[in-house]
Design goal:
With 468 residues, the chain is of the alpha+beta class. The protein folds into 2 domains: 3-187 and 385-467, Zn peptidases (Aminopeptidase); 190-382, Alpha-Beta Plaits. The chain is built from 11 helices and 24 strands. Strands 1, 2, 3, 6, 7, 9, 20, 21 and 22 form a 9-stranded mixed beta sheet that branches. Belongs to the peptidase M20A family. Pfam families: Peptidase_M20.
Length: 468
């Protein structure tokens, strides 16, 4: 890898810095959270607008663009039978609360660009687009086409990539800028399951009216709420205060105008693959409700899930704790809590090590549910991803990272699942640098302007090395 080439690419990226920042700000202003399908927008109008915005930016840079029925779009450059892919996503998780700056403002403060999607994944895919533009502007010789692929459903199951894979040939190599640097050689398997119970007993002194926490299963819920009716509401309020003080949790109760008691639990959001970095508001609330004079079958359920999960994030009490050398320990996030009619349900997100199978996990979960006397109501799972560390794709991206940054760091395994699981010959590569905090799915998500530009430099070199 020539030093002169690296410098030329870096200078070309730097020349485009203002345009890169402006494009990233523009795409952040669109609240591209999945909603009901409309014509030409299978994941909602706002997601569709974000896709068209990205394609318009790419067209303005001279790229050929394609919109695949609103599911996926891509910008393409070069010629040849084979192509290299860079896959990023424009959809985002809901913004939640507690933002210092507007979540869709795209504002810059002290060298940081704030907004939902700034680091996950709008900023990084814009960096990749401008990295390709640097290769194009320098007219570097390539033997393969390059596609910057804009996905629209990564946060809600990657149905977009299934649609793409069913209609397009796979890339010969590629990466997704949607994880961490350096290269991700392994991604844990994923499993979502629900522990539920149908209730039959009526309330006596205390009755549950509503129960809700979480908007996405892959986010640690930072707020949970229950509404109860009670013969002695003040006693319930006092019990809540005593519980909060004893367990040092943020839990409060208040009397509503209709005489019901509203209980709100507050925690800290985090990515579902890193649940230990958050504070689960749902599990705090369930632990308190398990001590209330609610109907016997509801209390039985509450105690069961509190004993089996509680504040644990490794699945130990459920009997599913497992780790391997390649990818580390299993993680568990209790992400969604719902009470509908006569059924209470807790939905969890598990990331399991690459040497385990989903079938093994489900077998253990079924056994645990049977022992707890509750239902394993539903489950889905996705397979792990694993590349040997000496695979050519891994070694090439590792060399690129070292060349551009001047640092040498071993490839890593992660719990998060990325687009790399949905297209062959691809791995995750950036944008989070070693030692940086993980801001995905959290309030005040941002990317520094320096990192945005540095990512573009790294991706420019990676694109060239994979496609030359």
């Amino acid at each position: 890898m020539g030093e002169g080439l690296t410098l030329n690419l870096e200078k070309e990226v730097e020349r485009q810095t203002d345009a890169l920042i402006k494009a990233t700000q523009e795409i952040i202003t669109l609240r591209s959270v999945e909603s009901d399908a409309v014509d030409g927008c299978p994941f909602g109008a706002e997601v569709g607008r974000a896709l068209e915005c990205a394609l318009q930016i790419a067209r303005g840079m001279g790229f050929h663009t394609v919109n695949l029925d609103g599911y996926v779009g891509y910008a393409e450059y070069g010629s040849g039978e084979d192509y290299v892919a860079v896959l990023g996503h424009l959809d985002v998780v809901p913004e939640g609360g507690n933002w210092t700056y507007p979540p869709y403002g795209g504002e810059i403060h002290e060298g940081r660009l704030y907004g939902r999607g700034a680091s996950d994944d709008k900023g990084p895919i814009m960096a990749a687009l401008f990295g390709l533009a640097a290769v194009k502007n320098l007219n570097l010789p390539l033997t393969k086409r390059v596609r910057i692929i804009f996905g629209t459903s990564e946060e809600t199951g990657s149905k977009d990539m299934d649609y793409y894979a069913g209609r397009e040939k796979p890339p010969v190599a590629g990466f997704t800028p949607d994880a961490s640097f350096p290269t991700i050689y392994a991604e844990k398997g994923g499993c979502k399951f629900t522990l539920a119970k149908k209730l039959t007993a009526a309330g006596d002194s205390v009755r549950l009216r509503s129960l809700h926490a979480g908007e996405r299963v892959n986010i640690v819920p930072d707020r949970a709420e229950a509404v109860l009716s009670a013969r002695e509401p003040q006693a319930l309020i006092n019990a809540c205060a005593a519980f909060a003080n004893c367990h040092k949790v943020e839990l409060g109760a208040s009397l509503a105008a209709d005489g019901t008691v509203q209980i709100v639990s507050r925690g800290k959001a985090a990515h579902g693959s890193l649940p230990h970095q958050g504070i689960n508001a749902a599990m705090q609330l369930l632990a308190f409700l398990a001590e209330c004079q609610l109907p016997a079958d509801l209390v039985s359920y509450l105690k069961a899930v509190t004993d089996a999960i509680g504040r644990e994030t490794d699945g130990r009490s459920l009997g599913i704790a497992y780790r391997d050398e390649a990818s580390g320990s299993l993680t568990l996030n209790a992400g969604l809590l719902r009470f509908t009619g006569d059924t209470v349900a807790l939905t969890c997100d598990v990331r399991f090590p690459v040497t385990w199978t989903g079938e093994q996990l489900i077998e253990k979960l079924q056994s645990a549910a049977n022992n707890l006397g509750i239902d394993l109501a539903s489950f889905t799972f996705g397979k792990p991803l694993f590349f040997p560390k000496d695979h050519s794709l891994i070694t090439t991206l590792q060399k690129v990272f070292t060349t551009v940054t001047g640092t040498t760091v071993d490839p890593i395994a992660i719990g998060g699942g990325t687009y790399a699981k949905h297209l062959p010959n691809t791995v995750a590569f950036g944008p989070q640098f070693p030692g940086q905090p993980d801001l995905c799915h959290q309030p005040d998500e941002y990317i520094t302007l320096d990192d945005l530009v540095l990512c573009a430099k790294i991706y420019a070199r990676a694109i060239y090395e994979l496609a030359r």
